[in-house]
Design brief:
CATH superfamily: NAD(P)-binding Rossmann-like Domain
Distance between the termini: 46 Å
Radius of gyration: 21 Å
Bound molecules: nicotinamide-adenine-dinucleotide
Strand content: 15-25%
Order of helices and strands: EEHEHHEEHEEHEEEHEEHEEHH
CATH class: Alpha Beta
Structural class: alpha/beta
Number of domains: 1
């Protein structure tokens, strides 16, 4: 795995998985890493991911998302690496008129994050089209994630980004006392309970889709592009109620004004995904599983932070 540690404090992987700390935009690093690994294909998750920050630092987002993708593709094509799975986002749809979006819905991102991801998609699709006459044409899968949440249920991995605005992370931070209350942005909207509606997908189900997409590319060159969501909306307040029920704790909330540019409702039409992978089976009780696994992971993170640090090694003996 490559990561430049811009949004994680340290390598989160077990020791048996090779970790290459570095920036995708650094051509020397990329060349050396690809020389060392000789990958058969690439799953490209890296990027800058915080929407409000993208409004303040657009250049960072175009650079970390679009330019990094361009550099990565350049290195892949130089080596005729022919399989790429790319993490895209529902933010490419902007504020949809209906709230339920299919892959053919208008692509109208409203912030640099969504725009930079859409540029990345276009770069990938153009390179893929141009490579069709090459001896190893590029095979691509673009996965448009909706709201990814939850942790590995055996707690090997979970969310640990240094900066995050994700609802479920904020919920478990509140449940564990790291913040006094949860802001609910928008409580008087045109939804049944007045709060925003999103399509939360458990990270395990998303990982499963990556494996399926990659395996499909191994046997079928047809480009894939599909929404990754359950096709079910859940409101912020219903997530709060679910969190209280799962944790058996109360979750204090504060009603706050809606955030600028937040769609009221954003839910995946996932028929393409269901058609591609008819036997894809989400985790049972996905929302409860999302909250329970995210909470268990957060508690593990906290316990690690509070455990005493190992004593520093003794100072070297003085020559004096
Ligand atoms: N989490 C979600 O709900 C969600 C939704 C839609 C799309 N996505 C996409 O999924 C991917 C992963 O998101 P995440 O939520 O795990 O975020 P994350 O911040 O935890 O992971 C992204 C990683 O990329 C690394 N990175 C950034 N720029 C880099 C560079 N130039 N070179 C090397 N590493 C770099 C960061 O250090 C970070 O660890 C992103 O591409 C994001 O756009 C996530």
């Amino acid at each position: 795995m490559i990561d430049d540690l811009s949004n994680i404090a340290h390598n989160p992987l077990p020791a048996r998985i090779d970790f290459y700390p570095g920036d995708l935009r650094d051509p020397v690093f990329l060349k050396q890493t690809f020389d060392a690994v000789s990958p058969a294909g690439v799953l490209h998750f890296a990027g800058a991911v915080v929407v409000p920050e993208s409004l303040e630092r657009p250049l960072t987002y175009y650079s970390r998302n679009s330019y990094a993708t361009l550099r990565l593709l350049g290195e892949m094509r130089r080596r005729s690496i022919d399989k790429l799975v790319f993490s895209s986002t529902a933010a490419v749809y902007g504020i949809p008129a209906t709230g339920v979006v299919s892959e053919t819905s208008p692509l109208l991102p409203i912030n640099p994050y969504g725009q930079s991801k859409l540029f990345s998609e276009k770069i990938i699709l153009d390179v893929q089209a141009a490579s069709s006459s090459h001896h190893r044409p590029l095979r691509t899968a673009i996965l448009r994630y909706f709201n990814v949440a939850g942790a590995d249920q055996s707690l090997r991995t979970g969310q640990q980004g240094k900066s995050t605005t994700h609802l479920v992370k904020r919920i478990v931070q509140t449940l564990t006392g790291q913040q006094p209350h949860l802001h609910v942005f928008g409580t008087n909207l045109t939804t049944p309970d007045g709060s925003c509606v999103r399509d939360y997908i458990h990270v395990r189900d998303l990982v499963d889709l990556h494996v399926r997409a990659y395996r499909r590319l191994e046997v079928d060159p047809a480009p894939l592009l599909f929404n990754c969501g359950y096709g079910q909306g859940a409101s912020v307040l219903s997530m709060v109620a679910c969190a209280e029920q799962v944790s058996r704790r109360s979750l204090p909330t504060v009603a706050s004004p809606p955030r600028k540019g937040d769609p009221v409702r954003l839910v995946a039409d996932n028929s393409r995904l269901r058609h591609l992978f008819p036997d894809w089976t989400p985790v049972p009780n996905p929302l409860q599983t999302i909250i329970a696994s995210a909470l268990a992971w957060e508690e593990q993170l906290l316990a690690r932070q509070m455990s005493p640090r190992p004593a520093p090694p003794p100072a070297p003996a003085s020559d004096a």
